[in-house]
Amino acid sequence: MIEKMRVRTRWMAGLAAAAALCGGVASRRAGAEHFDMQLRVFTADKSAQSEMDTTPPIGGVNPRPVLKVRADEPFRVTWRLKNSSPHGALKGVTIHFFVVKEAKTGQKPVPNPAGEAGIVDTSFTTDMSFGATSSGALKVKIGDPGSYLVRLQSENTFEEAGHEHFSAIDVEVQ
Fold it and tell me: Does position 159 have pLDDT exceeding 90, yes or no?
């Protein structure tokens, strides 16, 4: 009977330690991020959605969702970025949204949106108080088949955060 109690006690202590470790890692990860980001691309009958990722590493940690559309089929893009920084207000944050042609779907290096491959390229710099939200929406129609990156990213937060934040979706125009 005593042996069963020892085994049970060890098992419960192990379970409690694992739960505490997971909870600590999850709360540290959630508490450490500076932005809550959401990017959505959709047509009349299908959609793709992406949440916040970070760079480095180049291309981020998470695989990008892919949405397939027909050439000249209009699609809508909506995005939202919310300051959830544990440090409060963020000064001089650049919010950069762009659509750029890629060499292949899922490629890690980000093509220059201001270059020849750029379709849409817009950015602005702002101070964001804690909880402040910025959002946008647009309609896009691309006639040339290929792979396109739709991306929302923060800029000028690397020094404070040690990384930049982004959300991205690949659109395959067929």
Answer: no
Tokens 């997971």 locate to 22
Q: Using CA atoms, how far apart are residues 94 and 110, in angstroms rounded to an integer?
A: 17
Q: Which of 66-80, 85-99, 126-140 has the lowest mean pLDDT?
A: 85-99
CA separation for the pair 154, 102 (Å, rounded): 20
Q: In this structure, are residues 75 and 126 in contact, taking their beta carbons and an 8 Å threshold? A: no
Q: What is the 3-state secondary structure (H, E, C) of the chain?
A: CHHHHHHHHHHHHHHHHHHHHHHHHHHHHHHHCCEEEEEEEECCCCEEEEECEEECCCCCCCCCCEEEECCCCCEEEEEEEEECCCCCCEEEEEEEEEEEEECCCCCCCCCCCCCCCEEEEEEEEEEECCCCEEEEEEEECCCCCEEEEEEEEEECCHHHHCCEEEEEEEEEEC
Adjacent-strand bridge partners of 38? 51, 80
What pTM was computed for the model? 0.78
The CA-CA-CA angle for residues 157, 158, 159, to 5°, reads: 95
- Max CA separation in the chain (angstroms): 76
For residues 33 and 52, the answer to whether their CB atoms sit within 8 Å is: yes
Average per-residue pLDDT in the chain?
83
- Unique residue bearing structure tokens 């991205």: 168
